[in-house]
UniProtKB/TrEMBL annotation:
Protein's recorded name: TRAP transporter large permease protein
Membrane topology: Multi-pass membrane protein
Taxonomy of the source species: Bacteria, Pseudomonadati, Pseudomonadota, Gammaproteobacteria, Oceanospirillales
Family membership noted in the UniProt record: Belongs to the TRAP transporter large permease family.
Native organism: Billgrantia aerodenitrificans
Subcellular location(s) per record: Cell inner membrane
Amino acid sequence: MAYVIAAFLVFLTTGTAFAYLMGATAILAFIAAGYPQYLAIVPQRIFSQLDVFAFMAMPLFILTGELMNRTGVTRALIDLAMALLGRLKGGLGHVNIMTSLFFSGISGSAVADSAAVSNTLIPAMRERGYSPYYAGAITAASSMIGPIIPPSIIMIIYGGLTGTSVAALFVAGILPGLLLACMLFGMNGWLARRENHPGGDTIEVPPLRASFLRAAPALAIPVIILGSIVFGLTTPTEGAALAVVAAILVGRLLGAMTPKLFYEAAEATARLTGAIFIILCAIAVLSYLAGLLGWPQLLSGWVESAGLTGTRYLILLIGVLLIAGMFMDTPVALTLLVPLLAPTALLQGISPVHLGIVVCFNLCIGLITPPLGKCLIVVAAIAKLDYWRLALATLPFIAVQIVTLLMIAFFPEISLSLPRIFGFKVD
């Protein structure tokens, strides 16, 4: 097995794509463990891992986000947020958070959110006298609402890996996402007063009625998605298809939908979906080997012998995922660690829905933490900011997100109350 670890490190230093890195390492590990005969079953295992109806929703939600990004929806949402909150102290910071809250119900992706908002709001905040690094920090931090408020791409992945209801996960993400938004509003308000950020009655804002009417078609999309899923009219996959149709209609209403735009959105969707699924294939091979070697059972035995049950195991899980999120892409960490760590948590009686929200929220914090915070990288590149200075400016918001994570982890009803109200089985 030492040769396998050495091969992994060699592949890693050569810049090999993660999917190929994990796939090659898994194949070598089969040989080193003395199970080469099981490699004949690997293709079947890969297809069985991916043959999950919920996974079909993923490319459809990605396509919805791509279409909305390209049809001017971001500008309409920003104008509405500006009309509502622009005159408060630190108003543009509040507008940034509110825009991410609106956008989260459409894209389901933190990276898409940070890219869309960075192009518009960071220059506006700089013009009004905000520090460019504060503008970048709040943009990156608020983009994390995207994967928590439904629809959420990573919740679809978690649901497919664990067999948890995606609809229940979507409903469970609403209150945690709103709680995170409220915590970020509070931090921005406190910093606005401490740093004397711009804001007040002199700020010019767009008219509320016109802004609402322009943004209303876009705001209707998350209502359509959640309403159809929660009331049993559609499955999450059917709801995603309905969202694509709604996104096309919204694009037509805004006068921006063209065949070229649709083709570009479909092409971007295919690239991102392919990247995610090839990672899932590679992790499926490694998960198969882990099952043969009994790694989950060994971990469960070690956890019990060490007395890490209940709250202690949850703290361990949070710590591991926070560290993993700092160094790994979210879908990668999710597909690699959930099959290993989730069974032990579920055996201890933790709700799979509650665990899903904690895991997804936990890993998303990694999107704004160095050294590999993807949202930080996107914001720094678009706004032409120094990455490490931006990371330093983001620290207060990271602290707020960790506090919010602990509240969600140790008060399960924040996640589970809405699913119970709507009749979902969460235990």
